[in-house]
Design goal:
4 copies of one chain form a homotetramer. By secondary structure, chain A is mainly α. Chain A has helices spanning 6-34, 37-44, 48-54, 58-76, 82-85, 88-119, 121-149, 157-176, 181-184, 186-200, 203-209. In chain A, helix 6 packs antiparallel against helix 7 and helix 6 crosses helix 8. The structure holds a DNA duplex (21 and 21 nucleotides).
Amino acid sequence: MTATNPIKDAVTQARQRQILEAAVTVFAEKGYHRATIKDIARTAGVADGTIYNYFKNKQDVMLNIVQQMAEVDQLMENVEQAVQILTPAQLLGMVFQNRLRMLKKNLPLTRAIFPQIITDPELNQIFFETILQPNFDKGVQVFQAYADRHQLGDTDPEIVVHGLFSVIFGTIMLAMLGDTVILNRSEAFGEQMTAIFLHGLHLDQTERDQ
Amino acid sequence: MTATNPIKDAVTQARQRQILEAAVTVFAEKGYHRATIKDIARTAGVADGTIYNYFKNKQDVMLNIVQQMAEVDQLMENVEQAVQILTPAQLLGMVFQNRLRMLKKNLPLTRAIFPQIITDPELNQIFFETILQPNFDKGVQVFQAYADRHQLGDTDPEIVVHGLFSVIFGTIMLAMLGDTVILNRSEAFGEQMTAIFLHGLHLDQTERDQ
Amino acid sequence: MTATNPIKDAVTQARQRQILEAAVTVFAEKGYHRATIKDIARTAGVADGTIYNYFKNKQDVMLNIVQQMAEVDQLMENVEQAVQILTPAQLLGMVFQNRLRMLKKNLPLTRAIFPQIITDPELNQIFFETILQPNFDKGVQVFQAYADRHQLGDTDPEIVVHGLFSVIFGTIMLAMLGDTVILNRSEAFGEQMTAIFLHGLHLDQTERDQ
Amino acid sequence: MTATNPIKDAVTQARQRQILEAAVTVFAEKGYHRATIKDIARTAGVADGTIYNYFKNKQDVMLNIVQQMAEVDQLMENVEQAVQILTPAQLLGMVFQNRLRMLKKNLPLTRAIFPQIITDPELNQIFFETILQPNFDKGVQVFQAYADRHQLGDTDPEIVVHGLFSVIFGTIMLAMLGDTVILNRSEAFGEQMTAIFLHGLHLDQTERDQ
DNA sequence: TATGAATGAGATTTCATTCAT
DNA sequence: CATGAATGAAATCTCATTCAT
């Protein structure tokens, strides 16, 4: 009876994607509040009511977008092995560049999503638990791994990681606030921030020592 | 006729303040969208319509709150002389600690304001022009002053300043996103970020050199 | 400040009445569900939103109609003295005739209200507490008074009262169900039911005895 | 072609019953309006659309429930011979007790059905013609039979019957309105109402006379 | 016949803004 | 200027019903 019908499941997923893509488009264009269900429906080429066959309500559409982001992020974040291969310089550089590239591509959507995540407690919780916290945890792991190999002095891994993430989210924030400098000079920005943190954390010297 | 009547002006300003204070309270409590004009009016002890004698519309109330923030910020930011007196370490430390203290006090209001600034183009522009850009400019000045006295190597003032600000706004962002680590360990965070940046920018060594 | 302004209060009450009257008209015509807020607003000559300045929601409009019924009923039900003056025959006769007359006048509204009272728990409770229970209580008092003066045998006041009320509400029910016999022959019905109950309760004989 | 295929008919009837039973369950639980076709379909274990192969629409489902009630009632109401066997006291007592028992069992369903019968003209008509009127007719027959054998004075059979039915429907109504007295003391209620009516109609005395 | 996804009309409700007093 | 009742546009969401598979 309730045996998973693969064909139907595929259709359902396709329809979900179709609606979510439309939602992403519309949210990016108008922001969460000015985007209406009608807009999304029209963009997706379905009737208003159809959306409610796939999502509980408008908030739930946004929530699914956020969760999707989390999944995409997950895939990219099996960086755990990277620690073994990459030097801190390479890793930091990669992370910064990576984020800056993402940001450039998705600024309008980012502008629509973050205000909502900040404003809506449920969204906030989902975002925190599925994206933020796991990344913090990985960050601490990575940093700890470096700390074990080099001498990082008395810097506290947790604080350093939150400091690094504050640079990343600060970049996002500044971009959302209309600051174009970082985006226009993203390569230089990435390189110099990498350099500052490496030297600031004595990771360049110790590197040389090894 | 429309000659500026100082008494009326004072009354008008007082009433404006009264409404803005109420708005700040209500926005902080409910966020921009869930806060109604009725809420603000009741909190301010005036009638709904009265608000429209002092502000064009709801958005304009928020806009005035942002502009007020700019003024408050201005006062505090005659740090220009500070460069003469304070070492980079002192200055950086002060700025970080200062911002973290502000953030702790005003998190709910911050949560209400930033989503709106990000979402609303007009608000965004005002914020950028009256707060962000001036602060960038000052930052570059300050950093330039240090650069003239010490050797900062090949670091680009503009990028470093945007980097520093990204830490500040990233902290705000993380706090709004529900990350409590930074707030709970704000002193350690401030100290370590100061240390990282000082060393990262070779400002500690050069200091000693002088 | 919040001192009751009699003029405003009067206007408010008038507007409330205006809306309630419109609601009564529309509910009577279409029933609760098919009556829309728009219908009521148009009939009352106000905008849709205005209704929400006076009532929390559609259900609340109905609730106020029921409560108004309770008040009207109250006024009429200072029958307590009646016991002193009227014989049981006169009292029973009056009650039956009275109810039948009311019913004839208000059948369409009755048809709209009772289904809702039965269906909606909140409405049900209000109706029960403000109308039904008080009437039961009065009924028992009255019946007790008669019992004290005459010999009623072993009949239980509570049961007799609920029995009498079941005749009244049964009449309402039959009328709502489309039975026109009772309404068409209401006088004969009232008289005969009075006679049956009087004799059935031995109230006619004891009367003669006195 | 459209010749009645007995097998198909049986299957069809079974499916109908299955859906109607589900509908009864759901209506009893949620009431007519809050019960959705989806609810009924799920409860019946069929698809939404299937319901429309057996019933014209949602209203028609309810209509069939009412008609089914009529059939059930019919079976029970071959009381015609009963008149020959039972004394008026026994008959009245049986009817009252019977109805009270039914009521106790089916209060939730009753609560769902009657509001709809009252509200919906088509349902109303069906109910009246298939249930109410036939019962009135039978009642008059029965009462006439007793009248022929005893002296009932000047009481009009039609009025007395409607009076008796008003007690029955009044009991239903009071129960739906939340009055629990009758249900809690149903036996005493039945007995006393029987006694009142018997004596009120001089049926007890005449009985003894015979 | 069975399915159940798609439909879209329609209803409730909110709330920024206006304006007569 | 202050008031606050009235406005009505606009948005979300529900759900009976249809129809292609």
